[in-house]
Amino acid sequence: MPAQTSPTKQFTENVNQEVQIPMVHPSHTTQVNHTHYKYVHSYPHTQSVVNSVSEEHVCAEPQQQMPMHHCPPPCPPRPCPPRPCCRPRPGYFW
Questions:
Q1: Mind listing the pLDDT tens digit for each residue in 22-73?
Q2: Is the peptide bond before 84 cis (omega within 30 degrees of 0)?
Q3: Could you tell me which of 69, 70, 72, 68 has the C-alpha nearest to residue 60?
Q4: Longest Cα pair distance anywhere in the chain, in angstroms?
Q5: pLDDT attached to residue 46
């Protein structure tokens, strides 16, 4: 008798193969160097003081009890010239 054949039973065998596909995700960092110049202006101001002094030597009017040829203080102890009196002579310092 001829062989009898049953329907073919199906089996599945899974064979896995790993394939790497490169996926490139580029990035970039740019460093920006910035220089800021800040000009600080100042306006210094100085101040000075000048002290001024003046003096005048005069002969007092002669008094009746005072001899005519002497100057009262603060005139130097020397005879007074005729009016105007008690002017310094050149080369003579008080």
A1: 999 999 999 999 999 999 999 999 999 999 999 998 888 776 665 555 555 5
A2: yes
A3: 72
A4: 191
A5: 96
In this structure, which amino acid lies at residue 67? P
CB contact set of 87 (below 8 Å; sequence gap of 6+):
81
CA-closest candidate to residue 55, choices 94, 14, 12, 22: 94
pTM above 0.85, yes or no: no
Q: Are 71 and 63 in contact (CB under 8 A)?
A: no
| Residues in the chain, overall count | 94
> Residue 90, SS3?
coil
> Encoding tokens for residue 4?
């009898």
Rounded distance between C-alpha atoms, residue 92 and residue 94, angstroms: 7
Q: Which are the contacts of 72, defined by CB distance < 8 A and separation ≥ 6?
A: 59, 60, 66
Token pair listed for 31: 């460093």
